[in-house]
Design a protein that fits this description.
By secondary structure, the chain is an alpha/beta fold. The protein contains 18 helices and 16 strands. Among the domains are: 194 residues, Rossmann fold, CATH 3.40.50.1100; 97 residues, Winged helix-like DNA-binding domain superfamily/Winged helix DNA-binding domain (Arc Repressor Mutant, subunit A, Orthogonal Bundle), CATH 1.10.10. The strands form 4 sheets. Strands 4-5-13-10-11-12 form a 6-stranded mixed β-sheet, sandwiched between helices. Strands 8-7-6-9 form a 4-stranded parallel β-sheet, with helices on both faces.
Length: 473
Amino acid sequence: MYNQIILQCTKCKTEFSPKIRTPICPVCGGILNVIYSKEQFLVNEDIKSMWRYSLLPKFPILVTLNEGFTPLIFADKLSKEIGAKIMLKDETRNPTFSFIDRGASVEISRAKSLNVTKIVCAAQGDFGAAISAYSSRASIECEIYVPRDIDLGKVYQMILYGANVKIVNDYVDALAHANSRIIHDYVTSPASPWYLEGIKTIAFEISEKLHWKIPDFIIVPMGHGSLIYSLWKGFMELLNCDKIDTLPKFVGVQIKGMDPIVQVFRNKKPSNLRLKSIARDIEIKKPLLLELAVDVLKKTNGIAISVDENETINALCLIAKTEGLLPEPASAVTIAALKKLLEENIIERNDLVVALITGSAIKTPTVIENIISTSFKNIARVIVEKYKPTRLGDTKIMILKLLSQQPMYGYVIKQKLLKMFGINLTLPTIYQHLKELEELGLIASIKRKIGKRIRRYYMLTNKGLTFIGGLSA
């Protein structure tokens, strides 16, 4: 089933059978690594997905949506704009529009082959969308814990793929809830060795597209650190199989204020971390692979760098304008970082740079709407007017303003209307307003089980967000 592989802890080096169910080392809590007893790298050119490579686990059941085999694009106009040799690895072409589909395919293939009937995880965004999609493909029940302020586009994906979405306060709570289920359920995370095996195929594809040469630099966003570590593992396997001669230098990028890996790389203790940015998927306060990510950067003589939100927005718009790609903010940080490194002469203009576009901005509509409303105000007003309801009373507007802060259920809305606006309504009246707002397409609702009770939470749709933005424009 596992084609002569073992799991080895990256920390204490203890070895385990690949049949072990826990995603972390039971001895020291370290990250487990898939080790192949016979490293032979082969490419099946008839397969047009990431499964074309031999150095992947072989399961009796393969759960795939033809992930991987994404293009490596020479960004001609972008290169001329900022004065560099840039290639973009476009992971938005994956089935759920992010690189995480690669890891989800391996993880869910293993789960299905073990006859798992339910999988549990915590998700900040793309991870949950991918796991829920592949669970649906495999007919496995999926339960996902998500923070209240998750990107709406991504939670909508999870719901439509059939996941049981449970809303908790924040991502730290989500991880705690998921990890509490390890004894009884199959729990996955961005630290799972099987997930990491899928992600490493990006390194294989980059090398193959470059005819087994490597770029001078690879720039990747860092959240948990799983992406940069997986890429390094992939390149190391190619090096050990004599497919490449050396390793690229890695550049790991985070958002200023949520950059613990960058701080540790610079021998600082992570401090002053804030919990909200436009790049939600890499907004991780305690990265699961922090030590491994720092180790990769040091081993490859790499660079860790932080960029601010304005730099990220400018980079996003520049990529869209020059190359016709629409990266989510967590992807655009790579080009924002490249611009800074070029200005500081850390990267030379003749260096070949591969930047990863890890996910699509189509999944972060709120961020895009905010950029549009800030940068293109006249167009934004026209759009707002088009979708603005003709008759909407003060009470409904107050409800929309409350829901713009966070999802709520009916009784909380009743309390906040009274406390904040002095509006005292009965619950049946509240629910009638909510029903009418749903019919207008301004809000949507999901059910959440709390103990033995099921509550219906209401949240703004993109149309509702646009309407509220129009009121303050």
